[in-house]
Amino acid sequence: MGRPAVILVMCGSSVATSNLAAVKLEDEADRRKVRIVTKKGKVADFNMLVDLHKPDLVVATSQTHARDNIKVFSGVPLVTTLGQDKLFDEIFAYIKELGLG
C-alpha cells in the first residue's frame, strides 16, 4: 500500500466525540493493518482544516459539506455503535480504492 491515509475527524466542538471516533478508527486500522493518520477538529473550522491537513477523507459526527472531491462519511455510527462495522468496511474499502494505507 501507499502512504498512510489522512482522515480528518470532526464534531461540533472537537472535544469528546471527535476524539472517540478517532480512537475507534485508529484501533480498527491497527486491527486491519492499515496505516492512517487522524487529525481532529470542529466542523466550524472545516475549510481551514481541509486547507491545513489536506485529508483524503472526512469523518464527521455532525452535519458538514463536501469540498474538493473529498469524501465525507457520517461518523455517527462510531458514537452510537449502530452500523459501526458497516462504516468501518466502507471507510477502509475507500482507503484501499485510493491505494493508501
> N- to C-terminal separation?
6 Å
What portion of the residues fall into strands of 2 or more residues?
Answer: 15-25%
Structural class: alpha/beta
Report the CATH architecture: 3-Layer(aba) Sandwich
Q: Can you summarize the main beta sheet?
A: 4 strands, parallel
Shape: globular
The low-confidence parts are none
E-strand count: 4
Supply the CATH class: Alpha Beta
Give the number of helices: 4
| Residues in helices, as a percent range | 40-55%
**Order of helices and strands, N to C?**
EHEHEEHH
Overall mean pLDDT: 95
Strand order of the largest sheet: 2-1-3-4
What is the gyration radius calculated from CA atoms? 12 Å
Write up this protein.
There is one protein chain. This protein has 101 residues and is α/β, with parallel strands linked by helices. It has one domain (5-97): Response regulator (Rossmann fold, 3-Layer(aba) Sandwich), CATH 3.40.50.2300. Helices cover 43% and strands 22% of the residues. Helix 1 links the parallel strand 1 and strand 2 (36-42). It is globular, with a radius of gyration of 12 Å.
Provide the descriptors you would attach to this structure in a database record.
alpha/beta; Rossmann fold; 4 helices; 4-stranded parallel β-sheet; globular; 101 residues
List the helices and strands and how they pair.
Blueprint: E1 5-11, H1 17-32, E2 36-42, H2 46-53, E3 57-60, E4 71-74, H3 76-80, H4 84-97
Parallel strand pairs: 1-2, 1-3, 3-4
Summarize the structure.
This protein has a single domain (5-97), classed as 3-Layer(aba) Sandwich (Rossmann fold). The protein is 43% helix and 22% strand. The chain is built from 4 helices and 4 strands.
